[in-house]
Structures are given as structure tokens and as C-alpha cells.
Amino acid sequence: MSGPLVPPKVTVSFAKEEETIAIVSLLSEPANAMDLQFWTELHSALVHIESNPKTRVLIFLSKLKRDIFTAGNDIKELYAPETTAKRYEKFWRVQTTFLTRLLVSPLVTIAGIRGACPAGGAMLSLCCDYRVQTTHKTSSFGLNEVMLGIPVPKFWALRFCEVTLSKALGEKLLLQGALAKPSEALRYGLIDEVCEEGMLEKRVMEIAEKMKRLPRDGYAKTKINLRGAFAEEWYRYGCEEEAKDGFRMLCEPTIVKQLKRVLDGLRGGGGGGQKASSKL
């Protein structure tokens, strides 16, 4: 007897019949917590879209009720008492496989960021070619792992510093676990554009229409030249050393204690389930 059907968290659609612009919609209420299913569906969506010879541009958008792009990795995938070494390794490998593939995708990739975008959501966005964020009061962007008591993953930190205007600035933001407001993120080089509330989808479509005209081969090969070696090194490290050693790190008493505090705080906020499982 089969179990209940699990609704998809990631869906693919096309802006027009000619399928030149694909839209990946993120919808896992209430905060798009990025668990194993979420990352697996993201990877499947990317592979599917890349296989379509008509498609030139890929846009990521949140379809949540709240102004959140994604609140980041699901804490339950990182909190050692609620997972296993085997599951964590699978989770980390799937996540790394998706991010490294996205980084060198032959497609023009655009993150349309509505609202908050910490940690895992920020990393997804940083692997895209162009980032637009709205001016909502809740809007923020950054890798805040330090404030939550865990280290920023090695290649996440390297990519963050590569995108930031200077390595020194990137290191400062990472070590402080800072979440930048859109105007700050724009100034730091973390995002490319800020747009008004309610204008995000219109704006990213305008960008997509312009960028889809770029010659595909020249764009894709230049992207590989710029990012290919980095992506390969990240993939090897993330899928082997980091996937295997990461769980041992998460089992350290101080980290278990800190993540329990975060998890209890989220659950104490009237949530439970997914509401208590994001923010990393």
C-alpha cells in the first residue's frame, strides 16, 4: 500500500509557447525550507530545462504567500539527532550537484528574489548569472551561518567572496554572519539590481527577453572558461570530503546544542513542521 502523495515543491513552466524562457517556481509553505526533496526537485528541474534546445533563459521565483525567496536549508537535515549520516551525505551531495551544475549552466540564469534570502537561498542566487531583489521590509541577503553557530561551507564562502566587490568585504560579512538589506547588497555586488514591490516578475521578464538574444555557444563557453575549474573543484570537495566529514562536525556537542536552540526557538514561535525547519 503506497503512502500519501507528496506535493511537488518545485515546478517548471514556460513564459511563452516557444519555450525560450523557463520559470522554476519555488513553493513549499511557509518558508521554502530546502530539504532533500527540495534540492532533488531543483536538480531534476535544471536537468529537464537544459535538455530543451529551445530554452535560453531560466528564472527562479518564489510563489510563497509571504515575502520569502527561501529561508535556507531545512534545519532537520542538519540537526544530528533528527537525521543520519547516510541521509546527510545524500542531502549534501544532491545540494552540491545542483549548485555546481547551476553555476556553469549554458542557460542565462536569473534569480528573482522577493523578500528574505539567507543562506541556502542566497547560495542558489549566487550561482545564477543575474540577481534582482525587491525592496520589501523583510528583504535581506547573505550567508548567516556564523550567527547560527555553524561554519559557512568552504565553497559557499569562496563563491560569496568572488561575487562581493572585494575579498576583504566578503570575509567581513561572512565572519559577522551579516544579512544585508537590498540597497547594501547592491552596493556590495551581491545582487545586480533592486526593484519595487510588485514589479519583480515584470522586471525579470524584461531582463530575460533581452538576454535570450545573446549567442548561446559564446555565452555558454565563456561561462565554462570563467567558472568550470572552480565548479569541478567544488563538486569533488562537496560530494566527497564535505559530505562525509560534515556530519561528524554536526555531531559536535556545541553545534548540536546551538542548532537545538535555533530549532526550539522556531518551534516555540507557534510553528512546527516546516515552520520550524528553515533558516540555514
TrEMBL record:
One Gene Ontology term from the biological process aspect of the record: fatty acid beta-oxidation
GO cellular component, one term: mitochondrion
Molecular function, one GO term: isomerase activity
Matching SUPFAM superfamilies: ClpP/crotonase
Keyword vocabulary terms for this entry: Isomerase
Pfam families xrefs: ECH_1 (PF00378)
Protein family: Belongs to the enoyl-CoA hydratase/isomerase family.
Protein name in UniProt: 3,2-trans-enoyl-CoA isomerase, mitochondrial
Species in which this protein is naturally found: Bathycoccus prasinos
